[in-house]
Amino acid sequence: xxxxxxRMVAVQWTPKKMINEYLxxxxxxxxxxxxAYLVYELFYWINLTDTYRSQSAWAACILIGQVxxxxxxxxxxxxxxxxxxxxxxxxxxxxxxxxILSTITFHIMVTEMEIYHRFAWIxxxxxxxxxxxxxxxxxxxxxxxxxxxxxxLDGE
Length: 156
What we know:
By secondary structure, the chain is mostly helical. It has one domain. The protein contains 6 helices and no strands.
């Protein structure tokens, strides 16, 4: 079994490459976040439950956004050639784990800390952004399956 460091060396994943990918991830994430925010506002307006209105809207926006986000990152951020369904499965596991953790923190911010729900939305999105990037990059979109890397190896 190879370590993460071995994988990073094998695909020449340098700090510069990581920063470039993280910037691309965030650029794509801007569009994903706008989409998710609109879904959030829609479900907040619908009011799924009176008791946990903002929390249920948060959970709905994350669940719906999972598929949209996965496709955007698969296609545009990482240019992955990995098996789409296997990649989607990993992404769903990561997004669902993040959903659970972020919904708990969202609930704490809104209910316990009394932070305005729209500010809590922004804080949570930023807080879990890099965690999402790291896990998605190495599990859902392995760099070993980047189209650019495969083309480079085929050319040698």
